[in-house]
Amino acid sequence: MQQPTPDPDQEGTQAIDRRGFLGAVAVAAVVPLPASAAAGGTAVKPLGPTGVPIVVNGVEHKMDLDVRTTLLDYLRDHLHLTGTKKGCDHGQCGACTVHVNGRRINSCLTLALAHEGDEVTTIEGLGAPERLHPMQAAFVAHDGYQCGYCTPGQIMAATALLEEPCGPTDADVRECMSGNLCRCGAYANIVAAIQQVRREGGR
Ligand code: FES
Ligand code: FES
């Protein structure tokens, strides 16, 4: 059976339409959408309220931040407290551990503006070179580190652990510290340091 002869005018129209369609797709891919459209109709508010108070290492600061700023980035980039480390930025390594109102948290997983009125303690607020916290001194005594990158988070987790219902054995300590990874593998010495402080009742 003979196929109908294509109508050149019609084919040209379809070709233009395809080109037009592909062009529109390409433009849509590179032209940024308005914030309200990108957020599915909910307007993105990049700046947070001004003057929101937060206490870090005993000093009150007024936050004036992009609402998306994590507590970790606030501490490091705004307050320049770089002792708190960014390892994974996804809650998987514990390098960013700080205390909020006495309890340990991963500061990469929480927004700074969520901590209005909270008291945050970082490794800089725990001790000083001439006045080490007992846990810092124990890490030094037991060589509880190699490169030291994970160490601030390990020490913040370890000091919080002193106030937690952790069992007495080394295995209990390893379990309680399992959220803090050490790529250098200093785990045995870290546990030894923590157990010494626990035995001596250090705080
Ligand atoms: S940087 Fe926060 S858990 Fe790894
Ligand atoms: S001491 Fe290097 S990652 Fe722990």
Strand content: 5-15%
Q: What structural category do the secondary elements indicate?
A: alpha+beta
Oligomer: single chain
**Count of DSSP-assigned helices:** 8
Give a structural overview.
InterPro entries: 2Fe-2S-bd, 2Fe-2S-bd_dom_sf, 2Fe-2S_ferredoxin-like_sf, 2Fe-2S_ferredoxin-type, 2Fe2S_fd_BS, Aldehyde_Oxdr_Iron-Sulfur, Beta-grasp_dom_sf, TAT_signal. Residues 50-126 form the 2Fe-2S ferredoxin-type domain. Helix content is 39%, strand content 10%. By secondary structure, it is α+β, with helices and mostly antiparallel strands. The longest helix is centred in the first third of the chain and has 23 residues, at 8-30. The protein is elongated, with a radius of gyration of 27 Å. Residues 86-89, 91-96, 106, 108 line the site of one FE2/S2 (inorganic) cluster.
Key features of this structure:
single chain, 203 residues, alpha+beta, 8 helices, 5 strands, 39% helix, elongated, disordered N terminus, binds FE2/S2 (inorganic) cluster
How would you summarize this macromolecular structure in one to three sentences?
This protein is α+β, with helices and mostly antiparallel strands and 203 residues long. It is 39% helix and 10% strand. It contains eight helices and five strands; from the N terminus they run ααββαβββααααα.
Write the layout of secondary structure elements.
Blueprint: H1 8-30, H2 35-38, E1 52-56, E2 59-63, H3 71-78, E3 97-100, E4 103-106, E5 119-121, H4 123-126, H5 134-141, H6 151-161, H7 170-176, H8 187-200
Parallel strand pairs: 1-5
Antiparallel strand pairs: 1-2, 3-4, 3-5
Helix pairs in contact: 5-8
The chain binds FE2/S2 (inorganic) cluster (FES) (2 copies).
The site of one FE2/S2 (inorganic) cluster has 11 residues, from loops.
